[in-house]
Amino acid sequence: MTFLEHLEELRWRLIYSFIGVLIGTILAWIFIDFLVEEILLKPATKNNIPLQNLKPFGQIFLYFQIAIIAGIILSIPNIFYQLWKFISPALRKNERKYILAIVIFSSVCFLLGILFAYFVMLPLTLSFASQFGTTEIKNEFAIDEYMSIIISVMLAAGLVFELPMLSFFLSKLGILTPDFMKKYRKHSLVIILIAAAVLTPGTDPVSQVILAVPLFLLYEISILVSKLSQKKVVEQ
Fold first, then answer.
1. Mind listing the pLDDT tens digit for each residue in 29-44?
2. Is residue 197 domain-resident?
3. Which of 2, 42, 73, 224 is 20 to 30 A from 127, alpha carbon to alpha carbon?
4. How far is CA 84 from the centre of its chain?
5. d(Cα 69, Cα 39) in Å, to the nearest integer?
6. Whether the Cβ atoms of residue 124 and residue 202 lie closer than 8 Å to each other
């Protein structure tokens, strides 16, 4: 393919991705009340955190923002599929048959990250934020700030859980090797502990360990994925 043909292919992949996001956004808008009240507001309800809207049209814009982000999350399999279809011309013929499996694996990893953030990270974060400080000051959160924390933490966790998939891709390109990851395992453990401390605003070491263990397991899984990826390359 020529350079212009690559641009044309990229344009269509972006269009297909946008169509998927649009469909996902419409579906999210149909269930927007359930999404907001029964899912996104639940962490605040469980921690008895009062929320308030400080802008005249704050809730309207907030609902649109949530619908769009939910649409992106719902269309993640389609986005991954379009991405890999764009990359597929650079892959070998026998590697292209794994695109569907890669898309499913990538989507599952991303969704697992979101679930982990929702059920583990957010309760710890909000519990600390709501209880920190003097009792003379009442902790009431602005709804836009609250939603920003909820959404950013879930999306960040979803991206972190893509580490095995990133390992597979970099190994295929020859940039990453399992020996390199094993060599710097101790260094990665220190980085993981620091990341867990940053993601957990509390000083409770137990909470930090709860977050660090899955991250370290992801690193170990990434080493295995890198090893399997290189093994297939050698066999070919």
1. 999 999 998 899 988 8
2. yes
3. 73
4. 18
5. 14
6. yes
